[in-house]
Structure formats: C-alpha cells, structure tokens
Predict the structure.
Amino acid sequence: MADIRFIDILLGEGEPGYLGDPNPYREEQALDAYSRVTTTVAEKLIPSVANLRVRRRGSRLTEGEGGGSGVVITPDGFLLTSAHVVAGTERGSASFTDGREFDVQVVGADPLSDLAVLRAAATSLQPASLGDASRLKVGQLVVAIGNPLGFGGSVTAGVVSALGRSLPTRAGSATRVVENVIQTDAALHPGNSGGALADSVGRVIGINTAVVGPGFGQGLGLAVPINRTTRRVIAALMTEGRFRRAFVGIAGGPRPLPPRLARQVGRDSGIELVQIVEGSPAARAGLRPEDILLEVDGLPMRTMEDLQRLMVGDAIGRTSSVLAFRNGRTVTLQLTPVELSVR
C-alpha cells in the first residue's frame, strides 16, 4: 500500500494515470458526454427554431421589442411562440438558419398562458417534437435555443433550477397565474422569448418566456411548460384561434384543513376563498369569503391550480356541485361558470 501511495504522489491525485482512480479519464469523458448532449440537441432543433420579426399595427417591420423566437410544430407551417412576442400585431416574418424566410400570420394568442400560434406560408418545415414537462426533475440538463438580441440559432445550456414556479399574466381586465412554470439557469436574453427549452433528447418541454434579474443574461429564466394543460391551449389556438376559459369569480389560496376535516375528506388542504367578485357565478352560488373549497364535482381542490385546470370551455354553462367548509360544517352548493371575457 505504501508503494502505491508513493506512486500516487508522484503522478498527482486526479491526474491521468492516478492509480487510485478506477477511471482516470472520467472528467474528460463527462465533458464529452455533456458536449454530445448539447450538440445533438442543437443539431436537432436549430432548424426548427425561427427568428421572428413582427409588424405592429400601423408601423413598419421592426426587430425591436416585438422580435423574438418561434418553434415549428408542424411541417405545414404552424409555429409556437410567446403571446407577448406577437402582442399588438397580426403578421410578420420568420427566418431560419438555412436562409429561408416566410411571411407569418397570427392564428391565435392566449395572453393568460403566454402562448401563441402562428402560421407560416411554407411547407416542408422541420417540426420539433413536443415533450412533457411534468416528468422533469430539478437538476436535469436543459438546452435553450432561440434568437437572443437578434443572433439567430443561439444555444445555451443549463439545468432545471426549480419547478412549480408561478407566472402572473394579464389580458385586459382578466388576470391569471400560469402554474408549474419551469425555472432554469440556462442564459436567456431578450429575443429568446418564444424559443425552445428542450430536454436532453431534444424534446421541447417549455417555451421560454421571461428573464429574471437585473440587466441582460443575469438571474434566472422562466419557461411556460409543455404539459397536458398547455397542449389543450395549443390545440384550441390552432383550430379555433382562441382558448375559451370559464369564470367563477373567486380569489383564494391553499389552506391547511382542521385535523378532523382532513381525516373526513382524506387530504390535508383546501382552497380558502379570500374574495368573491360581486355578481359573479360564485356569488350567485352562495360562496362566501373564508369558505374553504373542498371539491368540485367530486374532484379534490387543494390549490387554485386544481380549480384553474377545470375552468376550460367545457365547464362554461355547466352546473357543478361544489363542496365547501363553512363555520365548522360542510355545505354543498351549485355553481355554473360563465365564459371569461378578456376585453
């Protein structure tokens, strides 16, 4: 053992050939593996990410604050981007790294999820594969591809630094919180908005939407997740040009349940109602501030996200049974949502 240790000291611990290391080249191999992942994802997705330039109503073609990125999702010209990239515009152009450029038109936008769908006057585009952000784990490698500051086909890499973040959005008088937003430390800059956040096999699991922190490229980046909920939004924008939401008129947040109630309903939290909009469906149903919402049509309500997930087009005009906790007892009410107006 002493002889081996002497040779170790001569070679230097951690140096190639260090006898105590069963794999003396593992650092180089790890770097190669990281590089292979990022380069493979880049080669796969760069042809599917466009540099967007938009025409504001009443203005010339610009690359300023209206510029951004878009991701091809079908060969016949549908692109996905951020709603704020195309706010106030109906058309623009999309250019690709192979030199092709096409006119694009806004098919539909949903500011409350910060997603929009465009249609390019093109065929034979290379679509990206959409993944499922619900399977992400903190620390997982992700790759961001977009056009920061107008530099097309730019690639940055990082990790998922947090999951379950919230992003407040607004459309007219309506406000909403986008749930399960992905937080990443992959460097993002103005112009990355609408671009792809991809996993290690090149599936798009998020649409980059915001940069957090002072200055450019500092702080953290946020991406709207691609999941079951946002896929429904995307499909509706492609087919109908809008995503219909139901409105009930409440504001609230999660609250722990009293032990006896928790045992009764089999869970430890519900939604405490802090505000009821006057004249809203919730007010007409008899819901009150300080009620704790437990169930809607038998489905457990733990957070506002649980309720938001139900407030889609199918719920509009359909009466639902609501179970709430009030003054030490449960009450059952009938709630009929109306369509949310974003004017």
In short: Helices lie at 2-11, 26-45, 228-240, 259-265, 281-285, 304-310. Residues 109 and 116 are 4 Å apart (CA to CA). The radius of gyration is 25 Å.
